[in-house]
UniProtKB/TrEMBL annotation:
Alphabetical keyword list: Disulfide bond, Immunoglobulin domain, Repeat
Organism: Chloroceryle aenea (American pygmy kingfisher)
TM stretches of this protein: none
GO cellular component, one term: neuron projection
Lineage, broadest ranks: Eukaryota, Metazoa, Chordata, Craniata, Vertebrata
Residues annotated as domain Fibronectin type-III: 5-107, 111-207
Presence of keyword Transferase: no
Name of the protein described by the UniProt record: NRCAM protein
Pfam families documented for this protein: fn3
Length: 207
């Protein structure tokens, strides 16, 4: 198997899900056989928004030939990763380069995990929601938009409310009685808004 590890391994983080890895080629005599390429082992150490450690699954990408760089797609935003690089010949792979740590920046969050609308009265509805499964960063706020739907399914004016990120429920007041409303709800990080979930609910007709 090859004798030495690639040197001068550098990681350039391009965005929250993509990084580029560079390395120096090893001297051909240390390959001790036909140079097939380089393998990059990389794994997520932890999410920066949740401090929980979990079972670490190492991923491997193979770059054929005498390459000196490779792209790592599909990374998770706002996470800490480690990687190393190895040379491959027909017999197997050589020693690993020293582990390199890199961090991905924040991304936009996944949708809130649920939106539940309860306690209808003549002029109010109660909204409850759950955190996004993947915050992908530090949540800054939630955005709630809603509008009435009339009997011919036409949509009325859209109202938008920004809700602090530490809230998990809201009582909407001053609504019209016996009216169907459509709700659009999403979470935000400093990078931007995530996908929204939608829900409908009706205020009651009379007490």
């Amino acid at each position: 198997v090859p004798m030495v590890a690639p040197g001068n391994v550098q990681v350039h983080v391009i965005n929250s899900t993509l990084a580029k890895v560079n390395w120096d080629t090893v001297p051909l005599k240390t390959v001790r056989g036909h140079l097939q390429g380089y393998k990059v082992y990389y794994w997520k150490v932890q999410s920066l928004s949740r401090r929980s450690k979990r079972h670490v699954e190492k991923k491997i990408l193979t770059f054929r030939g005498n390459k000196t760089f490779g792209m790592l797609p599909g990374l998770e935003p706002y996470s800490s990763y480690k990687l190393n690089v190895r040379v491959v010949n027909g017999k197997g792979e050589g020693p690993a380069s020293p582990d390199k740590v890199f961090k991905t920046p924040e991304g936009v969050p996944s949708p809130p995990s649920f939106l539940k609308i309860t306690n209808p009265t003549l002029d109010s509805l109660t909204l409850e929601w759950g955190l996004p499964t993947h915050p992908n960063g530090v949540l800054t706020s939630y955005i709630l938009k809603f509008q009435p739907i009339n009997n011919t399914h036409e949509l009325g004016p859209l109202v938008e409310i920004r809700i602090p990120a530490n809230e998990s429920s809201l009582i909407l007041k001053n609504l019209n009685y016996s009216t169907r409303y459509k709700f659009y709800f999403n979470a935000q990080t400093s990078v931007g808004s995530g996908s929204q979930i939608t829900e409908e609910a009706v205020t009651i007709m009379d007490e």
